[in-house]
Specification:
By secondary structure, the chain is α+β, with helices and mostly antiparallel strands. 48% of the residues lie in helices and 21% in strands. The radius of gyration is 22 Å and the shape is elongated.
Length: 211
């Protein structure tokens, strides 16, 4: 027979084991949702030449032109289709960006690439994407590129509508939910484990290294 104290200690130990088990399962669920989120997302990354007002304004004009093309012809049936579209339209995006820049009176070089790269946590209006590695269409303007970047999402179209674009509820919940411990867990895990080197998947012209 166990004494009352021994019974209490046994119950406390069992409760602790249960809580640890539930916590591990919860953490794994959040990390799995983040992995699925990255796999289902195609981002857009535009790097400006400098922080001068003219260069930053030109960058935003390039953004508008790229999004107009994506709105017109990028398939919305899945990330795989969007990625194939991006790879086959890099030259078109590059030429469009050059035309936009020429209209602004600048002839800075532009390079369009499809890459897999690390992104820090990014917050948008009403949504956020956790840190991690994502596939992205990246446009590099100029040769210096110390200017502020512009990040958004081509698929599932978070550039236009922040929430509800993902097929899985847990992905929408992670993107559109409040900033909670679960989100910080994903951030911390990505910061610790995700490689920082870019992997070039396709490029209209030779793709520059990360700045």
């Amino acid at each position: 027979m166990l004494s009352r104290r021994e019974m209490g200690a046994l119950c406390a130990a069992l409760l602790l084991c249960l809580l640890l088990s539930l916590g591990a399962g919860w953490a794994k669920g959040q990390l799995d949702a983040a992995d699925a989120l990255a796999a289902d997302t195609l981002r857009l990354h535009i790097r400006a030449d400098t922080n001068a007002v003219r260069d930053q304004s030109a960058k935003l004009a390039v953004r508008d032109a790229v999004l107009a093309i994506a709105d017109e012809s990028c398939p919305a049936d899945g990330k795989a289709d969007a990625k194939v579209w991006a790879a086959s339209n890099l030259v078109r995006l590059e030429l469009t960006a050059r035309e936009v820049l020429a209209a602004w009176g600048t002839h800075a070089p532009v390079h369009a690439c499809l890459v897999n790269m690390y992104f820090p946590t990014r917050r948008y209006a009403g949504a956020a994407l956790p840190a991690g590695r994502y596939d992205a269409v990246r446009l590099d303007i100029g040769t210096h590129r110390p200017g502020r970047n512009w990040w958004c999402v081509l698929y599932p179209g978070l550039c236009r509508s922040a929430c509800g674009g993902y097929a899985r509820p847990e992905e929408n919940d992670l993107v559109c939910g409040e900033y909670l411990v679960r989100f910080r867990l994903v951030e911390w895990w990505s910061e610790v484990t995700a490689p920082r080197e870019d992997a070039v998947l396709a490029g209209g012209t030779p793709c520059p290294d990360a700045a």
